[in-house]
C-alpha cells in the first residue's frame, strides 16, 4: 500500500473544500452540529416552561424552582406522589397552603395526591373539621390542563402500592426556621432512598404554617389553575347578575338611562368583625404600625372619595360577616350617590345559607374578584389574594407592565370612570389621593408570598 498518497475520499474532500463558499458552508454545518449537541444537554431544550419560571424570578431560592435535572422534560412524574394532611383555616389560607403543597411536590418532582380541605372554620379542634376534597371546590381536570408541565394533581387510585410510604415530619414552632425547612426539603430531594418510595407523606400540624420558599409568580401560576366547579361558579354568577340588575334599576330610575344597561359595581371587603379588630390592634402594637385597623366610618369615608365615584349612582357590594348586619348600621351614612348592598338586602342570602363556610367564602371571593372596582384591607389574606389575581390578569392582558406604577393609564378605558388602571384595586386602610384609599397592585416580582400571607403596608403603589 502506498502511504504517501491520500485515499480517494480524502482527495475528494480536499478538492471540495477548495471552494471558498463550500468551505464556509462546511464550517457553518460543523457549528450547527455542536450547537445542537449543546442544547440537547440543557433544560431549556426540553422545558421552556420551567426555564421561564426560573429566569423570570429573582428569588434567592430559585434552586427550588429548577428541580436539579429531574423532570426537565416538562412532565411531572406520575408514578411518584406527595401526600399532605388535611388543610385548615380560612379559604385563602387554605389556597396558600395548597399552593405550597403543589410547589413542594414540584420540587420533589412528584404528583400531589388530591388534598383534603376544611369546609368549616374550626381550625383548633381538628376532630370538628368538616372535610371536603379539593375536587369538590375546584375542577380537577381543568387544574391539570392549565398547570400541565408545572405541577400535577393525582388521585389515590393512581397509587399502585399504598404501603410504600415514607413519612416526612415537618417541624413547627420558633426553632423550625426557614433555613431548617429548606434544608429538610433539599435533603429529601437528593436522598435516593427516599425518592425510591412511591409516596412521601408529610405529617405535622397545620400545613398553612409551612415556611415560604417560592416567589409570588409561582403562586400566581397555581392560583390561575384553581377554577371553581360549575355549581359554585354558577352561584357566584347569580350574585353578580343580581348586583348588576340592582345597579341597572338604580341608574334607570335616577339618571333615565336605557333599561338593561350594564353598570359597574364596587366590591368592598369590610374587615370590622370583633375578632378582626382585636387581631389587628395587636398587630399594630407588635409591629408599631398604625395603618392596619380601619373603622366602619373610615372605610365609608375613603370609599366615597375614590376619584370618579361621584360621577353616577354607584352600587357597592359589601363582603362582610352577616352577624354584623343585624342593626343595618353598615348600610347607612354612606356618601350620596353610593348605594350599599349586602347579601340580605340584595336578596341572595338563600344562595349562601345552603352552603358551608368554605363555599360561601368561595362565592364571595369570586364576586369581589369580578368587581369593576375592589377595595379591601392590605393586611387581609382574602383581600391580598384578590388583588394578586387582578394584578395577574392585568399583566396577562398587557394592560400594565410589571414594575409600572399604579398611576399609569392602561390601554383600555376604565368603565368605572376612575383614573388609572382598568379594574383598579384599593387598600382602604392606607390613605391615598383626594382623601380616598391607596391604589393597590401586587408586586409580582416579589421573592416570597410573605407580604400577602401576613399583610403589609407596602402595596407596590
Question: How is this structure best described in words?
Answer:
The chain has 461 residues and is of the alpha/beta class. It is built from 17 helices and 13 strands. The strands form 3 sheets. Strands 10-9-8-11-12-13 form a 6-stranded mixed beta sheet, with helices on both faces. Strand 1 (81-83), helix 5 and strand 2 (111-113) form a beta-alpha-beta unit. The longest helix has 26 residues, at 230-255. It is globular. One of its GO terms (molecular function) is glycosyltransferase activity.
How would you summarize the topology of this molecule?
Elements: H1 8-17, H2 20-39, H3 43-46, H4 48-55, E1 81-83, H5 91-107, E2 111-113, E3 116-118, E4 131-133, H6 140-146, E5 153-154, E6 165-169, H7 178-190, H8 192-195, E7 199-203, H9 216-225, H10 230-255, E8 265-269, H11 274-287, H12 296-304, E9 314-319, E10 338-341, H13 343-346, H14 349-353, H15 357-369, E11 373-376, H16 381-397, E12 425-431, E13 437-439, H17 450-454
Parallel strand pairs: 1-2, 1-7, 2-5, 6-7, 8-9, 8-11, 9-10, 11-12
Antiparallel strand pairs: 3-4, 12-13
Helix pairs in contact: 5-9, 10-15
GO molecular function: glycosyltransferase activity
Family: Belongs to the glycosyltransferase GT106 family.
Protein name: O-fucosyltransferase family protein
Brief overview, please?
The protein is α/β, with parallel strands linked by helices and 461 residues long.
